[in-house]
Amino acid sequence: MATISSAKPDELAAAAFALFSTRGIAGVNMDEIAAGAGVTKGSLYWHYASKKEVILAACNLYYSAWRIQIAGATEVHERLADQLEAAVAFSVRSCLLDDANRVFTTEIVAMSLYDADVRASWTGFLDETERFFLGLTHRAVGAGEFRCDDVDRAVDLLMASMEGIKQIALFRPQSCLPENEQRTCRRLMSLMGERVPVHVPV
Amino acid sequence: MATISSAKPDELAAAAFALFSTRGIAGVNMDEIAAGAGVTKGSLYWHYASKKEVILAACNLYYSAWRIQIAGATEVHERLADQLEAAVAFSVRSCLLDDANRVFTTEIVAMSLYDADVRASWTGFLDETERFFLGLTHRAVGAGEFRCDDVDRAVDLLMASMEGIKQIALFRPQSCLPENEQRTCRRLMSLMGERVPVHVPV
DNA sequence: ACCGCGCCATACCGACCGGTATTGAGCGCC
DNA sequence: GGCGCTCAATACCGGTCGGTATGGCGCGGT
């Protein structure tokens, strides 16, 4: 058979992420993760030394997916203001509609309360997200496409609001309805600043 | 001895809350909860049928403490705008500085992912909190002390931001510094609307 | 004096789970 | 063919924890 083997750890991490994001981290044991990838626990422990390593690998998988998705959602737009709006819309959608996202991130946050490694991992992701929005907003403002008096304040509030929205959506299912999703996007954008209307030459 | 006994369940719940809020719900077992109240597990199970009942009792204790604290923080002010500002300041402070608050609520939110009873309990608390801020803001606006075009939007964003701030503070210790705490309060208030200056007769 | 009952302690069960020890199958290499 | 490496499967250990069974102790009622 001679499996190339280099992809196996990723396969295992993917199986772990799939289970974690539906049944939670504590709700899944190592036997089930192994079974999800078609192997047994003995093999799983050959690739990862502990459950925590599996969790951190699943985190990295999540971060990679996020990078790809938000890049795909924004890069289709030419104008920077549109990119910013698309990035916010993508984030809101994933907060409100993506149950896997909510389950996984909530568990990771809870785990960060006690585990410094997991906390460091998530801190890195938060930093990356913040840099993304800061950079995009600054560029949109610099290009004269968006008006925002205090970009740092705006992005800070945006980040907090999005985390809060994701959390509260668990308790307010009606906030996940399409019309409320759009309203949430508008509210978040109005919190950021306002678009500069395109100058249409006559 | 003949202990009055009526206070015992609350004592047990208080011991449970103290442990939950420092070491998490999953990190505390029934023996430790009982020991924290000076009894053994047998007694604990005489008062509560399951660990979940203990958890829900600890939740109710938390809600009661919140009611008392936020009432105490606001009622010292005469003007409604001041009350609103004090309520926001209290919430921010408890989000940023109160580790027990963060640990307990994060665990409850994570538990709500899978347990409908816990979720219902926390939903009730969120509703209560929202009603509190909606009512206070509406009254402040009605009394002409505060200007806010869309109270529903403002309170929605406020609730989301506060939950997000509490969560993100775990990963950004510097946001808990006093100067950043005040800045956060100002940002949240600016998100709500603006105070109407007191009319000082000359 | 006796009983019932509220309250508590002791001892224990059974299930679960992370992690390990051990063995073996396939494969490249000499 | 024999050796050694990689990777996988089986069985098992040690410990934890929620929950239960059972018995005891003191008090109030009669």
Concise account of the structure shown:
2 copies of one chain form a homodimer. Chain A is mostly helical and 202 residues long. Helix content of chain A is 73%, strand content 2%.
Topology (elements, then pairings):
Two copies of one chain form a homodimer.
Chain A (H helix, E strand, L loop, with lengths): L7 H16 L6 H7 L4 H7 L3 H24 L5 H18 L1 H14 L3 H27 L3 E2 L3 H19 L8 H15 L1 E2 L7
Antiparallel strand pairs in A: 1-2
Chain A binds a DNA duplex (30 and 30 nucleotides) through helix 3.
End-to-end separation of chain A: 68 Å
Q: Quickly name the level 1 CATH class of the largest domain in chain A.
A: Mainly Alpha
- By CATH, the superfamily of the largest domain in chain A comes out as Tetracycline Repressor, domain 2
Average pLDDT rating of chain A: 91
Oligomer: homodimer
Structural class computed from helices and strand pairing of chain A: mainly alpha
Question: Which pair of chains has the greatest number of interface residues, and how are they split between the two chains?
Answer: A-B, 34 and 34 residues
N to C succession of SSEs of chain A:
HHHHHHHEHHE
Number of strands of chain A: 2
Strand order of the largest sheet of chain A: 1-2
Q: What is Rg of chain A?
A: 20 Å
